[in-house]
Design a protein that fits this description.
Helix content is 24%, strand content 33%. By secondary structure, the chain is of the alpha/beta class. Strand 1, helix 1 and strand 2 form a beta-alpha-beta unit. Helix 3 crosses helix 7, helix 3 packs across helix 8 and helix 7 packs across helix 8.
Length: 476
């Protein structure tokens, strides 16, 4: 087998709405610890890093997630090229951005392993074996996908039909849409069909060549966007106008179902795309009663249920085949058989423009986070946590004043021309129009209770003058 360094490409642009309320657009499932103590993004990056002859990854993510992605990778000691999608346009344009960047930075023979950030793989050794089994075909110019060996008929996945049997890369005979149960049972019984994993291995130039053949508008937009990209702090920003010309399409529809160069490698590695609450229950593992529990949960006579608590006690009695998920601002209760319908609730929340569709109560920023613990028409109370060494933007508000009480640590305060420290149990007042900021120059987090008072309390009432995170001139 030929050896060449593999470059992992981690796709981290999804919103994971089927796992609401834990997963939301501003803080989706791949950035959360849903299965292990690491986030799903971290587990994906670590899994890739254990392969033989592997380079630092390329991560493609949403602009609003950039600081969280960078922070999570830095926590693992991993460096990455982080590409910020100007807008979400499905997987084909996202992969095209990564491939175009790899052609520039790594050369035409760059070997890319495409991995969604939100998959679970229990057997990492088997995963690595499958990846290595596909390298020769990928180096030869084929577009390799990985077919999951099915352990049961499943109607929630697309299928790949292999033209022959074997553990190495073989030609793909057909990609098949999600079947009904009877058809899925036939597929599994035949031994020729695999679940479509959404993972791929190919040379960057081979993918771009096939994309130009079948979807030239996507290839042209991505390559032009990368050609005009700029570096912003630790991030790569493709040029937005060029990228906006790209159609929105999946890599399967755009290329894999059309190309004559598709190969499939079987993978039997305990894979799950964690696309629903029942699949998360399975990925977490269950007890002797078939329950998966997380957080402060008490249960009596419950069976085959998923019970998760984030911020308070959840108590359940006599549930069968149910999902109960508690967060600080929302609780989901649903029969497992209807868990897929959670997306309908998210659509309804969006139609009603409710914030719970997009954000959690605790909102993360590059400097730390804030948690809105109380709100009314003319006041709002937040708990701020400022990370060690972090500093908020120098800013002012036109419509609200703020009272700050330090409840843990020491904060350095700027208020107009004054700079002073506030220690635990000390407070200060920021009048409307005062230019101000908070800094943490210590090695411990600072916790501050902030009381806002005014006639308008929206997050867009911010005028930034200086910012360590490249947000000058923005107001959110």
């Amino acid at each position: 087998m030929n050896t060449i360094a593999v470059t992992p490409v981690i796709l981290s642009g999804g919103s994971g709405s089927r796992l609401w309320p834990s997963s939301r657009a501003s803080y989706p499932k791949q950035l959360r610890a849903m299965v292990t103590n690491n986030t799903m993004l971290q587990d994906t990056a670590l899994r890739a890093s254990t392969l033989n002859d592997v380079t630092s990854p390329i991560v493609v993510c949403n602009d609003s997630h950039r600081f969280k992605v960078a922070e999570q990778l830095q926590a693992l000691g991993l460096k990455a090229d982080i590409i910020l999608e100007p807008e979400g346009k499905n997987t084909a344009p996202a992969v095209a951005l990564a491939a175009a960047h790899a052609l520039q930075s790594k050369g035409e023979n760059a070997l890319l392993l495409i991995m969604p950030a939100d998959h679970v793989i229990a057997d990492e050794s088997a995963f690595a074996d499958s990846v290595h089994a596909g390298i020769d075909a990928a180096l030869a110019g084929d577009l390799v996908t990985f077919g999951i060996v099915p352990d049961r008929p499943h109607t929630g996945y697309g299928y790949i039909k292999a033209a022959a049997s074997g553990s190495d890369a073989v030609a793909v005979e057909a990609f098949v849409e999600k079947p009904d149960l009877e058809t899925a049972t036939q597929y599994v019984g035949s031994g020729q069909y695999f679940w479509n994993s959404g993972m791929f291995l190919f040379r960057a130039d081979a993918f771009i060549e096939e994309l130009k053949r079948w979807q030239p508008a996507i290839a042209d937009a991505a390559c032009s966007s990368i050609d005009q990209s700029v570096v912003d702090l630790d991030f790569i920003r493709p040029e937005a106008e060029s990228f906006s010309q790209s159609p929105s399409d999946s890599i399967d529809y755009a290329v894999m179902e059309k190309t004559d160069n598709a190969k499939v490698v079987p993978m039997n590695a305990g894979w799950s795309d964690v696309g629903s609450w029942p699949s998360l229950q399975e990925a977490r593992g269950v007890d002797e009663n078939g329950n998966a529990l997380g957080g402060d949960v008490l249960q009596a006579d419950c069976k085959n249920s998923l019970l998760l608590a984030e911020s308070r006690l959840v108590a359940a009695v006599g549930l069968r085949d149910h999902v109960v998920v508690e967060t600080k601002d929302a609780v989901l209760v649903a029969p497992k058989a209807q868990a897929e319908d959670v997306k309908k609730l998210v659509d309804q929340l969006r139609e009603e423009k409710r914030p719970e569709a997009l954000e959690h109560r605790q909102v993360f920023r590059p400097w730390g986070s804030y948690d809105s613990v109380d709100a009314a028409e003319t006041h709002q109370v937040k708990r701020l946590i400022v990370k060690p060494g972090a500093i908020l933007s120098l800013q002012r508000h036109r419509h609200r004043a703020e009272h700050w009480v330090v409840v843990k640590g020491t904060a350095r305060i700027t208020r107009d021309d004054e700079v002073f420290d506030l220690k635990t149990n000390e407070s200060t007042y920021i009048p409307i129009g005062a230019i101000h900021r908070i800094a943490n120059v210590t090695e411990e987090p600072v916790h501050i209770v902030e009381v806002q008072c005014g006639d308008y309390l929206g997050e867009d009432d911010i005028e930034r003058f200086e910012d360590n995170y490249g947000r000058e001139g923005t107001n959110t």
